[in-house]
């Protein structure tokens, strides 16, 4: 077989078997198009480069799972890159929203501001939250840690833990419900 005319499907299948040469050729064949997709979504050159890198890391890790009967390699890689770019855009928008809200809250004058929470109440609340988190099953606690303390999106968590996205969404929802229940059982009294 002439390796110069190998299709992305053939290259991905061989990369899935551990052929790094096929993976390199797959990168050379598809990187420009995938970069264009990421750039079109994010409108940011540096972010598009990071997304392309993340996409090819994910492609390398998951190449062995590629099933040509479910669609073309090109379609699979485009879908993966598009999702990473959309997740990155959403994360940036959330960050921008938080910064905007913080700026708006900071603009409140001192006479409009509420008195600060007592350090004792804040410490007690923090203690109760830590205790509630420690009671959670390990998989739920890890999902919450990644989401709320490391700022990962649900898609990033699913990829990092090699779990289906639906499983991660359910796990986070159940964990939050459990924490709410645990915190509601012992309310802080003034």
UniProtKB/TrEMBL annotation:
Entry keywords, A to Z: DNA-binding, Sigma factor, Transcription, Transcription regulation
A Pfam family recorded for this sequence: Sigma70_r4
Cross-referenced SUPFAM superfamilies: Sigma2 domain of RNA polymerase sigma factors, Sigma3 and sigma4 domains of RNA polymerase sigma factors
Transmembrane residue ranges: none
Cited InterPro entries: RNA_pol_sigma-70-like, RNA_pol_sigma-70_dom, RNA_pol_sigma70_r2, RNA_pol_sigma70_r4, RNA_pol_sigma_r2, RNA_pol_sigma_r3/r4-like, WH-like_DNA-bd_sf
Domain of life: Bacteria
Residues annotated as domain RNA polymerase sigma-70 region: 26-94, 132-180
Gene3D superfamilies to which the protein is assigned, alphabetical: 1.10.1740.10, Winged helix-like DNA-binding domain superfamily/Winged helix DNA-binding domain
Keyword Transcription regulation belongs to the record: yes
Signal peptide start and end residues: none
Stated family: Belongs to the sigma-70 factor family. ECF subfamily.
Protein name: Sigma-70 family RNA polymerase sigma factor
């Amino acid at each position: 077989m002439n390796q110069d005319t190998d299709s992305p499907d053939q290259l991905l299948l061989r990369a899935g078997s551990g052929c790094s040469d096929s993976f390199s050729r797959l990168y050379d064949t598809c990187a420009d198009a995938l970069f264009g997709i990421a750039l079109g979504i994010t409108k940011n050159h540096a972010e598009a480069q990071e997304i392309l890198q993340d996409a090819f890391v994910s492609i390398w890790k998951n190449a062995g799972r590629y099933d040509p009967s479910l669609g073309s390699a090109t379609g699979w890689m485009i879908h993966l890159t598009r999702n990473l770019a959309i997740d990155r855009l959403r994360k940036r928008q959330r960050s921008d929203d938080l910064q905007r809200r913080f700026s708006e809250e900071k603009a409140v004058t001192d006479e409009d501001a509420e008195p600060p929470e007592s350090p004792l109440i804040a410490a007690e609340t923090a203690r109760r939250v830590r205790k509630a988190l420690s009671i959670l099953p390990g998989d739920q606690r890890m999902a919450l840690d990644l989401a709320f303390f490391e700022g990962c999106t649900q898609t990033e968590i699913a990829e990092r833990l090699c779990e289906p996205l639906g499983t991660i969404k359910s796990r986070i929802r159940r964990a939050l419900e459990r924490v709410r229940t645990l915190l509601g059982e012992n309310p802080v009294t003034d």
